[in-house]
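Q: Hi! First time asking for a complex rather than a single chain. Here are the components, and I think there are two in total. Is that enough to go on?
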Amino acid sequence: METLLSLLHGFTVALEPSKLLFCLIGVFLGTAVGVLPGIGPALTVALLLPVTFKLDPAGSLIMFAGIYYGGMYGGSTTAILLNAPGESASLATALEGSKMAKAGRGGPALATSAIGSFVAGLIATIGLAFLAPWLVEVAVKFGPWDYFALMIVAFVTVSATFGDSPLRGLTSLFIGIALGLIGIDKLTGQARLTFGVPELLNGVEVTTLAVGLFAVGEAFYVASKRSHAPEEIIPIKGSLWMTKEDWKRSWAPWLRGTAFGFPIGALPAGGAEVPTFLSYSTEKRLCKYPDEFGKGAIEGVAGPEAANNASAAGTLVPLLTLGLPTSATAAIMLAGFQQYGLNPGPLLFAEKPDLVWGLIASLFIANVMLVILNLPLIGLWVRLLAIPQPWLYAGIVVFATMGTLAVNGSPVELAMLFIFGFIGYLMRRYDYPVAPMVVGLILGPMAEQQLRRALQISLGDPMILLENPISATLLGIAALALIAPFAMKGLNRFKASED
Amino acid sequence: MTNETRTQGADKPALIVGVLLLIVAALIGYDASQQTITSNYGVGPTAMPYVVAAGLTILGLAHFVVAFREGLPKPDAADGTALLWIAGGLIFLIACIGLGGGFVIAIAVVFACTARGMGRRALAVDAAIGFVLGLAIFLVFAKVLTLILPAGPLEQLFL
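A: Yes, that's all I need. Here is the structure of the assembled complex.
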């Protein structure tokens, strides 16, 4: 009941005309950028973060929610029409979606993906609204040691689930943590790893790292192997609308996809890859027309798309209640919160209920807007796909530099962007995952603070981490997750590649 | 796949990554050893750097092991000229902003160089597109978002 009241209050915030406008702009921009090939939601959010700089916190976070959902929807469009998934979460969608598009059923594929995302987003956001307050109550009792253990779990799962090799994942993570050391230590004021450069005292901006690795790195990478043929856009033929048969075959996969996506997304294990592929294989098994799989079965689009969207709402659970980002997108969202001096966590629910519940309510609204906006505008998005690749990447690099300059207009920041871009290129070239580095940069300093706080309370006794049941259990899980990939190579099937 | 690399000896990229990781670890360790502020109880600001340095050392050594086993994935040949065009554009951008040349010119050059790196052969046209794009972005930021991007002589005309 209390949740419903809070949620209703949230709607009164989110339904203000100005907030609705922000949400609409966010959904529109998010889709427009997300639809560009090679750009996933994480990069969409990172590139558009500076645009929200001068808005008030509530407005910009609402715009953010719209960008996030819009970016995901745009990614599915690219996956279906180009067979070029911009991020790993739409890999499963691309499998059947592009086949449907080739068979002249691109319209229904996009429709089931849009409506499936809507259904999943709606259910998952309800889940978020009811799970979050409960988790907040649990989280209030968490000590610094528990937070530290939770972050270790996130570290391990993020670096082990992204990419094929735990060694390369952990290397990426540790470089990120090392970058997080740069700057003034918050507890003592000691300058670390600044080498006398004053611009480094404030540390490395998360957005600079993310945009450098994802955007500039991708531009370098694509340019370096340019010999490949241009991607072919599959034109949409026939009706946009789903037939009665399509509806009948879609609703159950939507619900099952949501059931996979939300809980897995809410775990501090990160990523929408596992639920999307689980959903894909489940639908393949349950489908009444199994021979259609591989030729364009609508279930293979409906399920994974729902799972994708549900898990996106799921990742907001640990982000909002614990301040724990479990995906690259969530890490950048956290950077967005921090830009306003807001720290997600149990306290935020108590101190800024307007903002938190307004954000949750606007997730509902963003979902509705996406359906209304995207089906009629599909022609526009398709035209965006046709931008010639040189202009597309030139534009991406321009937007990357624009974002960096808007945050911090110093040449040092630009030099970092350039260096991170080149590192991102080399990492792509040698198959190192880049997302763990972003998560390491943002979680590293937080983990350090929690650990030091815990050790201050225990007067320096590290056993405090193992004496508390919650932190001990979490550390045990982390240890298991670290060893498991080496022990069971067979799990490779669910290993994800990332944005 | 292991046989093939073993006959060629160690995998060079993996060795280089290993060495780089060790250098970074040494750098972090050295920086921590030079710090002067300590904490009275609990752990001070040097603890985490040492932990990270230790982790990086282990990962660096693990790369040496990998270098003598399967090595890193073998990438395709890279188009060096394309990389140079994009890198050149970005370096010009840094210099242009650093020396006060302003946002619009920097963006025009970056746009043209990146498009060139991606295979277009119309440097002048692309520079013009980049110029218009840069000016549009500058004006939107200045007038709508009241955020002034780095301004040079050209941008002053519009402020």
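A: Residues 1-7 of chain B have pLDDT under 50 and may be disordered. Let me know if you'd like any chain examined more closely.
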